[in-house]
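Please, structure for the following, as tokens.
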Amino acid sequence: MRIIAGRHRGRTLRAPEGAATRPTADRVRQALFDMLWHAAWGGRMAVQDQLVLDAFAGTGALGLEALSRGADHCTFIEKDRTALAALRANITACGEDARSAVLAADATRPPAARVPCGLVFLDPPYGKGLVPRAVAALEAAGWIAPGALLIAETGAAEALDLPGWERLASRSHGAACLHVLRKPETG
């Protein structure tokens, strides 16, 4: 597993042994960031200079990819101790300690946010219905800015319904499905 593009292109990321994490495959991350970069609703400003939240962060591959491509700051939320060790090692290996914050917390019960984020990644374990629960909790805690882009990875067979959110795209990649949604500007 490696960073695909940007200032950290080619940097290998550490993943913990076992099944504690299921890192997003390089080809899926490439497809996701290509979509963010080139879609009519996206563009470079979808990533560059954004405050990013990578919840259920695991190795931090999504947030680190965003930092590599010009995001301003990323907050990583992860609760598994083994994954936290790999995440912290990956942040340090990329030299991104100053532009990162790591919260050892559950994304379905997050601490209050200091500043809301404009780009949010959710990559929870598949088949547990965690995306809607996490979105509700993160919104209540102030993590998601009005107009934010939300990228949620689910199992390919999982449906995702977030009432009030605008669905921009859904793409299947093997066992995974990427959902891109936008939070309304108001309400």
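Residues 26-38 form the longest helix (13 residues). Strands lie at 51-55, 73-78, 100-104, 117-122, 144-155, 166-173, 176-182.
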